[in-house]
Design goal:
The protein starts with a strand and ends in a 23-residue tail after the last strand. The chain is 30% helix and 21% strand. The chain has two helices and five strands; from the N terminus they run βββααββ. With 101 residues, the protein is α+β, with helices and mostly antiparallel strands.
Amino acid sequence: MTHYQLRIHGPGIHDGRLAGSVMSEILRLLVDGTRRVVRLRVEGRSTARGPAPAWLALAADFEVVALTPGSAVLRLEAQEITGPGLLDQIGMFDPLEETES
């Protein structure tokens, strides 16, 4: 399982607490963005007409582990993508260097 952290900054955050409406929008953007990135990497395009392929929802899925107490850091976990066909023939993601902003 791969672990990610999303540090959230902005006016909707007070003492490490997020409004439900802010969390809803963050998760909507993360789900949509993750699906587009995975599809771009596999098919060479981020969107296409018609229904999304069945494998996409599973390949782009992640779990929200917790909002770290006292901060605005959202912890996410995602399964490594493996399996027969396209997904095991390419490196899905290049490693990223951690940076502080």
